[in-house]
Amino acid sequence: MRNLWLFLRRYNAFFWFILFFGFSLFLIITNNSFQRNSVLNSSNSVIGNLYAKVNSWKSYLHLGETNDALSKENAQLRKDLQAYKSTDSIKIGPVPVMDSSEFGRYQFIIANVINNSIHQKANTITLDRGSKDGIEKGMGVIAPNGVVGIVLNVSPNFSTVQSLLHPDTRISVTLGRSEIFGSLVWGNNIDYRAATVKEIPNHIKVNKGDKVYTSGYSGHFPKGIFVGTVIQTGISSGDAFLDLRILLSTNFSNLQHVYVVKDLLSNELKTLEESTKDNG
Question: Is the pTM of this model over 0.70?
Fold first, then answer.
């Protein structure tokens, strides 16, 4: 203890300098918008690179599982390709398929998950792709086996995603082969494996095991992306509607690779809808 005191006493000028220097930097950053924005941008870049380094080790540890998932995805893609070639109908068996008019409408940007939360009240995901890669705010994000979320913020090299496990996320979905639509929400759930489908008319017969897909109406996702499977029915929400509890197809606890959905017709659609509102 005596040696520590002697050390501090001997170099007290240096420690006072560090203290006042740090305090002056704090005042400059706090009271000047340019310096504050510069520091925030730099810190975001540093944090993003740190996440990328950590994720590279996590990805290495999960190579076996990743390869299995990619193999299953390739098999499903081959199956879907054959289905597209053999028919032009809207639905094939129990699985909805995009209409031929939507062929080529969507592009998919591959990204890696470098940070992911699943136990928060409002969960987000960080990707290693940004505006330089064509990613924009509002784009949908999917995984090989389901829906992930919606792009929230974008920097040149990184982007954050409002996860499906977020109380503000709401996605338009449809039940199996029916034309019954509802809204998928996570709400205040604490289970990262499940979510709720709301606004289902109570006269509709729904069975456990029924599949849930994106409707294509939300503007973020193509029609027919698998979302999950019904595990509980008959949950009364009042009035003339029921809620359904579904098991999500996306495994958020082991999310490594995702696809950001780029709708090539989104600007045209937004312009048309805005002009329609103005005319109204």
Answer: no
